Amino acid sequence: DSGVTQTPKHLITATGQRVTLRCSPRSGDLSVYWYQQSLDQGLQFLIQYYNGEERAKGNILERFSAQQFPDLHSELNLSSLELGDSALYFCASSVDGASTDTQYFGPGTRLTVL
Amino acid sequence: GDSVTQMEGPVTLSEEAFLTINCTYTATGYPSLFWYVQYPGEGLQLLLKATKADDKGSNKGFEATYRKETTSFHLEKGSVQVSDSAVYFCALSPGGYQKVTFGTGTKLQVIP
Known about the structure:
The complex is a heterodimer. Chain A is mainly β. Chain A contains no helices and eleven strands. In chain A, the strands form two sheets. In chain A, strands 2, 4, 5, 6, 9, 10 and 11 form a seven-stranded mixed β-sheet that branches. A four-stranded antiparallel β-sheet of chain A has the order 1-3-8-7, with no helix packed on it. In chain A, a hairpin with a 5-residue loop joins β7 (64-68) and β8. By secondary structure, chain B is mainly beta. Chains A and B meet through β5 and β10 of A and β6 and β11 of B.
């Protein structure tokens, strides 16, 4: 158990809908990362937050947005969903967001768009 | 930009066989290098890391040596077990607060 929690574990929805994925980092970790893992694209970095502020942005679509709240939990919002958004979404956390930090991954949320 | 190239999988080995998973990287400067492992149905977890040239990371019988001259960080284990079946990801960190780049992952299947 990494100490990172993600909810929900599974999510099934339809094209065009909007969903919110939630992540709670390990106690004491200030930085949160979001990744998308699909069969054809591998593990893609989406976005990183540190203590409520966006720190780095990767291959995140404009239809996706995220934020980190004062209690340090984070939410990833996915809107106007397409079939191709079906994937595993992982949240990870680290102590202070330095790229040499160990990242601790949650168990993931499996999103299926029908 | 930075990139990580891993050998394609899946790799299928018999129990107690020797394992090598190749990883090469492209980066400027002096990155740190990582191996993460993903067991079925779980998130990734750090297996080992090395932060400078010639460092050897090791954990759970796995080893990898940071070779700057060949820009490689190959993962090795002398005798694999069925419980080592997982997907292995090589990753690169350029330092500072820049994003970590992950390889595409190599699936290992160990058969009894």
